[in-house]
Amino acid sequence: MSATRPLHLAAEIGGPPRYDAAWYVELAQLAERGALDFVTLQDSFARPGLDALAVLSRVAPATERVGLVPTVTTTHTEPFHVSAAVATLDWVSRGRAGWLVDVSATPAEARLFGRRPAASAAALWQEAREVAEVSARLWDSWEDDAEIREVATGRFVDRDKLHHVDFEGATFTVRGPSIVPRPPQGHPVTVVDATDGHSRETAARHADVVLVRAGRAEEAGALREKLRSRAAEHGRDPDTLRVLAALTVDLGDGERPAEPGLDSAPRTTAGAGGAHYRGGPVDLAELIAGWHGAGAVDGFHLTPAEPWRDLERLVNGTVALLQHRSRFRTFHPGGTLREHLGLGRPANRYAPAAGTS
Question: For residue 188, which of 65, 110, 99 has the smallest C-alpha distance?
Answer without folding.
Answer: 99
